Amino acid sequence: MAGIDQLIINSAYREPTHHWKYDLNGQTFVREAGRRPAGYFIAGQGSNQYNDIGQFIELPLVNRIRPRVKAWREAEYPGVTGVTRKLLDHWNDKDARQYPFFYCQMDAIETLIWLTEAPDAEKVGIDILSDGGAFRRLCTKLCTGGGKTTVSRLAVRFWDNQKGKITVGGADISKIDPETLMTLYSIVFQDVTLFDNTIMENIRLGRKGATDEEVLAAAHLANCDEFAEKLPEKWNTNIGENGCELSGGERQRISIARAFLKDAPIILLDEATASLDVENETAIQTALSRLIKNKTVLIIAHRMRTVAGADKIVVLSDGVVAEQGAPNELLHKDGIFKRMSDLQLAGQSWTV
User: What angle, rounded to 10 degrees, do the helices at 248-262 and 278-291 form?
Assistant: First the structure.
C-alpha cells in the first residue's frame, strides 16, 4: 500500500486548501484540492482488514451550509447584532488572544451565529431537523417561553421589534444609533462574557479609558476585592478564557463591577442571581442594591425575593402581559404572581 510523505498539509488557523482521500481500489492516498467534505465512515464487509477504512457517508446539509457561512464571513457578517460583531472581532484578532481559535473552532462558532442571526434570505433551503437536542433547547431558551428575555433583548435593540414602538425617554429606539443606545444601559446577564485577560482589564471594559483608581473603586462596590485580594497577582491575575479560573459568583461580580464603572442611567438585570448558591446570591444582591440606587431598573427574574422591592411588576405568560402592578397589589389577587409566590414560600420549608 502506498503511503504519504507529509501528513499535515494545512494550517490549523486557516481554511484547508487540500485533503487526503483514500483510494481503496488502488490502496493509496490521493491528495485532492479543497476542504474535505463533511461526513463519516461506517464499517463495511471488508472493514476487518487493516487497509479498508469503511464506506464514507456524506452529510449533504453541512456541505450546503459551509459555502454560505464562508460567503457570509467574507461579507463581514451581515445581520449580526452589535454585541455579536464585537465578539467576532475579538475572536478573530490573533493579537488579542494568547491561544487563537483553530479554524475548525471558529467555523463552528460562526455557523451557530449564522443559523441564529444571519438574514433569512441567507438561509433559504436550509431546514435543520431536530429531536429536541441541545441546539433546539438553546434556541427555545433564548426565543420562546414567557417572553421575559425577549423583552430585555428588545429593550437594548439586540433584536428589532416587528410591531409597535419601544421608547426610552420618549425617543423611539429604532431611530437611535445602536452604539448611542448602548451608552444608556448597563447590563448584567446570568451568562457573563469574560475575556482571557486580567481582572482589572475585564472590569475596564465597562468604560474604555477608565483609570486604575476608577476600576478599583467600581470593583470595591461590586465586592470583587473579597476574592481578588486573595489571588497571587491580585488584580493583575489572568482569569482564563471566559473567566474559567473563577467561580460563578466571582464572574458575576466582575460583570456588576463593569456596570458600576459604566454608570449608565438604565440597569438591565436578566436572571443575574439565578444560578448562584445562597452565600454568593446574598453578596451579589448587596452589590446590586448599591448599583441600582437612583437608576431606572428592568429586572428579569423568577425568584420573588429578587423583585420584592420593585415599584411595578409585569407578569408575562405565553408572550403576553398577564398581570401588572405593585407587588402588594398582585399578592392580593388570585393570579399567576400570587401562585408563584405561594409555591416558592412553601418550597422554603422543604427538606431532603
Answer: 0
Largest separation between any pair of C-alpha atoms in the chain: 82
Question: Which helix (H) or strand (E) is 310 found in, with range?
Answer: none
Is pLDDT of 130 > 50? no
- pLDDT digits over 62-117, tens only? 888 999 999 999 988 988 888 888 888 888 887 777 778 888 888 988 998 888 88
Q: Which candidate, 314, 318, 319, 320, places its Cα nearest to that of 337?
A: 314
User: CA–CA separation, 257 vs 254, rounded Å?
Assistant: 5
Composition of the chain by helix, strand, coil, percent to 5: 45, 15, 45
Q: Which three cell numbers stand for residue 160?
A: 428589532
Q: Which pTM does this prediction carry?
A: 0.52
Q: CA-CA distance, 223 to 220, in Å (whole number)? A: 5
Dihedral over alpha carbons 27, 32, 37, 40 (to 10 degrees) = 20
pLDDT tens digit string along 36-58? 888 887 766 655 555 666 777 88
Please give the grid coordinates belonging to residue 326.
405593585
What φ, ψ does residue 297 adopt, rounded to 5°?
A: -125, 130
